[in-house]
Amino acid sequence: MAEAADQAAVRSVTVTGSGTVEAAPDLLTLSIGVECRRDTAGDAYAAAGEAAAAVTGTLRSQGVGSRDIRTSGLNVRADAVWQEGRGQQITGYVASSTLNVQLRELAAASETIAAAVEAGSNDVRLDGVQLGFADTAAVLALAREAAWSDARTAAAQFAGLAGAELGAVVSVHQHPLPPAPVPLGGMQRVFAADSVAVEAGDLSVSASVTVEWELRSGAS
Questions:
Q1: Do 204 and 151 have their domain in common?
Q2: Residues spanned by the domain of 89
Q3: What's the pTM?
Q4: Would you say residue 100 lies in a domain?
Q5: Sequence-separated (6 or more) residues with CB below 8 Å from residue 148
Q6: 15 and 65 together in one domain
Q7: CATH code of the domain containing 156
Q8: DSSP label at residue 122
Q9: Structural domain count, the chain
Q10: What is the model's pLDDT at position 219?
Q11: In a domain, 152, yes or no
């Protein structure tokens, strides 16, 4: 009975803290789409291969390593239209693929993107550009530290208001992180210019944590 009474007398405080840090991004990820429409499937496939090769060759000449270039979504389909009295009629074939590219030299990113788009000519489109971090864990660790400090400061204040002191940590719960990196909106219009400036700026990374502390009786 005495042990149960002691457990019931244990007090605690639970606080959620949040922290945000800003850091300069050091990685740019872009998605380059290749799409070729030709009279035959073989011609479309070959043309798409040539356009993709031209783009990847240009990227490599700009200093992008092979490990930072990945092909995905290779597809060949018939392009058909409905004709009255004849039904679906194939008018040609479309071959498409996507190149996912990581650029680690942000200072030269705009020139590299422009050169890649020019190499692919009208068979290439820029599907999206995102800024992020090569080592997200290091930035996130700083955000976690800020969140912990925020939670502990609030918990210490509550403990003081209750005439107590913080004791041992009882539990820690980290909340899910928001998706990252942050997309750059206007970069999809690259085809209209020789080059579009990439302004990296700073990105914000946030963390949130809920911590429970024991409360000890304050010093008399």
A1: yes
A2: 28-131
A3: 0.68
A4: yes
A5: 17, 19, 209, 211
A6: no
A7: 3.30.110.170
A8: G
A9: 2
A10: 59
A11: yes
Same domain, 157 and 220: yes
Task: Say yes or no to pLDDT of 213 above 50.
Answer: yes
Ramachandran angles phi, psi of 65, nearest 5°: -75, 155
Separation CA 150–CA 145 (nearest Å): 9
Q: Please check whether residue 1 lies inside any domain of the structure.
A: no
CA distances from 22 to 81, 129, 205 (A): 51, 20, 6
126 and 137 housed in the same domain? no
User: What's the start-to-end Cα distance of the chain, in Å?
Assistant: 28
d(CA 108, CA 84): 53
Residue type, 112: T
Residue 150 · residue 23 · CB < 8 Å: no
Separation of alpha carbons 138 and 180, rounded Å: 14
- Compare 199 and 206 and report the one with higher pLDDT: 206
Query: What Cα–Cα distance (Å) separates residue 152 from each residue in 55, 81, 143, 148?
Result: 52, 65, 14, 6
Instruction: Decide: 93 and 77 in contact? Cβ < 8 Å.
Output: yes
| Beta pairing partners, 29 | 102, 130
